[in-house]
């Protein structure tokens, strides 16, 4: 737990990205997040990339800072244990986060045992049909305007942006519902469809209204920034940088850095426009880019960095992820957001906590992702208050398991 | 307000995407969000796309469901009004959301007037240097693995994914800090750097650990899904669809739909692998795609839809945004997430509220984005408790203004 903002206990039954990331986010904010796992691992436990030990860097990255209980979810006794965990007492408890549709985890079922239960269900589409980030993204229009893309040759994004947005919405939903429950005693059934997360965003960013009112499909602009000035440029030493001139200050800094005041004034005069207006910069983007392009191509990245940083230009180099991790000071341990963890079967490496900082308060460290069932006994004893005899019987009958049944242990 | 989950009053002083979207998210969850505006409009008030009236579809989309007070922020009297708004009494008040660095809105300054104030500051980088979605994204490594991209020819994303992630994190941070203040009385200084939001996500998704431990830069895969099977395909009638076979059920549905059981079995036999393992599907993606490609190319979109939907394949057509808004049932008014608004100078159109649904509770309607200063008087009278005489004097001296000073009114 990096932060002590949330004081919750969340039972997470989930797979893939959105729901586990929501749980991770809550855990880093201070929640006790207990993942319910199938004995032997769920659908995404072996997802690429893998370490030689068989442990998944994907899974262990999304499930840091959580506890794990391994249960045979096909058996009624196992399902009853999960229901009991979700509906156990305590004003900070009674919270389920899931993306797995199962009748026995229905809000109505759980509310019979705890009237003020809060459940958050992440779905593909509202009607229960399947949708994943890739299929939702295809429908947004973004792949038709990305890079060299068009509707006939769409370019998918690689970042699962809609899963991420959905995760943080779900975390917010749970936090807000808990706040309301403290004030009013009300529980909440929270439902969030991935497709709604994506399509509502088109409305919030103005693309949905543009489509309806102006009937326009935004064309692909390559790496140009829409609505202002910005693009990628090559340097003399074969590197590439992204440069943005969105605000007036950023634009002025760029013009000054490139020493292109006269050329820009001439261009403004010829067009009868002032580039103080960002949309005029957008209209003239090719002509402006030609000036910046020549300037960058004549200088090395190191030389450009000195000039741009001195003038506070908004820019940055393109990196590969290994280059970022090796060379960018923003991901070093001096940044309080990063710490070193050493998960079993993975080995020590830098991992990130919550990006949120509360400078006046101490920041806690996370625990690495658990082995499956690493906390089975402590959860059964501590949360459900079972006797050690009862816990032993659950093990003996195969309803629960400890970390010895983790296939990567 | 769509939902009544949050009962807060938030003072928002912001521009661009992340901070306004955080405010919109809180407003749709139930918060009273009051935007503080420069008289005549801030830096992003005229951002593209524009309606013929001059009103921005970008700005009016991000500022739905909020109130607006217009103040001359260059004058000490104006700044004192903002400070008074942020630190005004009430257990639900005392909250600032901003991305504008200004000494007079420092957490420490505001805490002198209200010890339990909650401030949330969105920054580019932690050190105060500038960074925007485009420059941060360049450093993540994603543009080098998008579409046909490489580190020498990166492809930028068009969706401002990091701004969106940052917005929802900020909204969560405020909700969680308010929850803690209710329990403990503590205020909070919350800081969130856009670059940390992006780079922490690389850790959560396993790319940061992959880079450190395996030293690998993930190559560009075009439209292939990493780690499982999925890609775009052309249909007989010149459309394109995205198809995903990530889970075992999705994969089985695809094999059945395409009637390729025998070919897949032969391929598995030849490779000595079982495609029950999603990573084996990933390794054999080109051979599998060749089979699906031929099947899709022989059928129209309509024919494919019938077969895929019957078998519950995870798929979807590529659309332009106008096509989505015109033809996709998921963005029609029957979906409770969408409603019709008619903002001044824009005209009636469908807009989205919060993607979150609380099925057992009534859902409220939003108000359209305000004109600048539309709520100046009611905020001064109702929140600060000024007399109408005092409000009149503030108008006369030009410290505040009503909607008549909105350049688009």
Question: What are the defining features of this structure?
Answer:
about 400 residues; alpha/beta; homodimer; 3-stranded antiparallel sheet; 7-stranded mixed sheet
Short structural summary:
Chain A is of the alpha/beta class.
Describe what this molecule looks like in 3D.
2 copies of one chain form a homodimer. The first copy, chain A, is α/β, with parallel strands linked by helices. Helix content of chain A is about 40%, strand content about 15%. The first copy, chain A, contains 16 helices and 13 strands. The first copy, chain A, has helices spanning about 20-30, 55-60, 75-85, 105-115, 135-140, 160-185, 195-205, 205-215, 250-255, 260-270, 280-285, 285-295, 300-310, 320-325, 375-380, 390-395, and strands spanning about 10-15, 30-40, 65-70, 95-100, 120-125, 190-195, 230-235, 240-245, 315, 340, 350, 355, 400. The first copy, chain A, has a 7-stranded mixed beta sheet with strand order 6-5-4-1-2-3-13, sandwiched between helices. In chain A, helix 1 crosses helix 6 and helix 5 runs parallel beside helix 7. The longest helix of chain A is centred in the middle third of the chain and has 24 residues, at about 160-185. Chain A starts with 8 loop residues before the first strand and ends in an 8-residue tail after the last strand. The mean pLDDT of chain A is about 95. The interface between A and B is large, with 162 and 162 residues.
């Amino acid at each position: 737990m990096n932060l002590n903002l949330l004081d919750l206990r969340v039972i997470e039954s989930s797979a893939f990205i959105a729901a586990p990331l929501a749980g991770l986010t809550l855990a880093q904010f201070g929640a006790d997040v207990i993942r319910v796992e199938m004995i032997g691992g769920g659908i995404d436990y072996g997802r690429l990339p893998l370490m030689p030990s068989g442990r998944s860097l994907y899974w262990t990255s999304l499930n840091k800072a959580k506890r794990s209980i391994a249960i045979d979810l096909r058996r009624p006794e196992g399902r009853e244990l999960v229901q009991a965990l979700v509906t156990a007492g305590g004003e900070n408890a009674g919270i389920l986060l899931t993306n797995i549709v199962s009748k026995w985890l229905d809000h109505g079922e759980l509310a019979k045992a705890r009237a003020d239960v809060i459940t958050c269900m992440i779905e593909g589409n509202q009607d229960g049909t399947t949708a994943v980030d890739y299929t939702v993204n295809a429908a947004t229009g973004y792949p038709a305007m990305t890079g060299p893309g068009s509707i006939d040759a769409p370019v998918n994004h690689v970042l699962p942006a809609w899963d991420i947005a959905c995760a943080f919405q779900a975390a917010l939903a749970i936090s807000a519902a808990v706040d309301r429950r403290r004030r009013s005693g009300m529980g909440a059934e929270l439902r969030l469809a991935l497709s709604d997360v994506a399509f509502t965003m088109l409305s919030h960013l103005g693309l949905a209204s543009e489509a309806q009112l102006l009937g326009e499909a935004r064309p692909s602009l390559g790496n140009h920034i829409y609505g202002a000035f910005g693009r990628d440029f090559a340097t003399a030493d074969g590197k590439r940088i992204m440069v943005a001139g969105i605000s007036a200050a950023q634009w002025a800094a760029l013009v000054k850095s490139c020493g292109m005041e006269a050329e820009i004034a001439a261009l403004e005069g010829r067009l009868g426009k002032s580039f103080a207006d960002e949309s005029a910069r957008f209209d003239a983007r090719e002509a402006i880019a030609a000036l910046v392009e020549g300037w960058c191509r004549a200088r090395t990245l190191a030389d450009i960095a000195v000039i741009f940083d001195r003038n506070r230009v908004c820019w940055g180099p393109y990196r590969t992820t290994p280059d970022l991790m090796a060379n960018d000071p923003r991901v070093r341990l001096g940044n309080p957001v990063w710490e070193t963890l050493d998960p079993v079967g993975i080995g020590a490496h830098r991992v990130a906590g919550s990006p949120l900082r509360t400078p006046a308060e101490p920041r806690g460290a996370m625990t690495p992702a658990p082995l499956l069932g690493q906390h089975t006994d402590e959860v059964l004893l501590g949360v459900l208050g079972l006797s050690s005899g009862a816990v032993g019987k659950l093990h003996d009958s195969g309803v629960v398991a400890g970390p010895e049944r983790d296939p990567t242990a």
